[in-house]
């Protein structure tokens, strides 16, 4: 329940951060009276929702059937077909024909089987989670409501919180802290959205060029699964391999090349630009989230890591500034010192 609520809140934040630039543009562009006052954020958001209602309704009308078929038919069939073991005969043939000593081939086969088993366990867990979560898809209708509340209430909450803090350095520090937390979460959301769009478009183009069945729906699914770092791409790889038929080698080579470029060049730069997290911190966060919470933990790992990173950095800066202020402050004279000196008859 807690994990599901956290993911629902994260999706609402995802939508809110994506809509925030559009809300600002509409609010500045539309004037409501002769004085040229900007349109209220709530009214601007209602206008955006009304504008998006028809396209979203049409998209859901035509895409709900294929999505439901993929969740309830294609995904379970792919899982069962994958775990039947027949799809890995191609890998065994590749190992058998590889230019390596015959004595090393059993070791390679064992290592490959171990790696495949590890990926299979996580992929099956992810797919089972997606299939189980399909029954709660109606709860996604709550995300626009939460996004509306976040976009309209957050500015007032921020101002009220800052008023509570004492004036001076602490209030300035609080404003900077809230700004950096907001920037880190916005950077994560936009980095994930950009990664999903990039991977989705590349997979659609690649699958169409290779001739994979249901290339468009599989490419869209790959873009959506990209929102689950680590586990989602592995699931995409395994499903695509099971659906590729006699084009499995081309699909495998394409997805491996895509993952190398995405994971080593594109995604780390997106995360570093948006959240200022190093690559080791990124890997450690995802691993910790997977161990603690599985697929949901992986989804929540990077936002939590970004929040903790910003909090720790501001705590250190605040502590250093306080130390500097105490060390440079002039010493206050002891009011009792002069009296004691007069009583003893000695000069201070």
User: Into how many domains do the coordinates divide?
Assistant: 1
* Helix proportion: over 70%
Give the overall shape.
Answer: globular
End-to-end distance, in Å?
70 Å
| Strand-pairing-aware structural class | mainly alpha
- Strand proportion: under 5%
Radius of gyration: 28 Å
What value does the average pLDDT take?
76
Helix segment count?
Answer: 11
Low-confidence stretches: none
What's the helix-strand series?
HHHHHHHHHHH
Tally of strands: 0
Description of the structure:
The chain has 348 residues and is mainly alpha-helical. It has one domain. It is built from 11 helices and no strands. Helix 6 runs antiparallel to helix 9.
Output the keywords:
348 residues
Secondary-structure map:
Layout: H1 2-29, H2 41-83, H3 89-97, H4 105-133, H5 142-164, H6 169-210, H7 215-225, H8 231-243, H9 248-275, H10 279-328, H11 337-344
Helix pairs in contact: 1-2, 1-5, 1-6, 1-10, 2-4, 2-8, 4-8, 5-6, 6-7, 6-9, 6-10, 7-8, 8-9
Short description:
The chain is mostly helical.
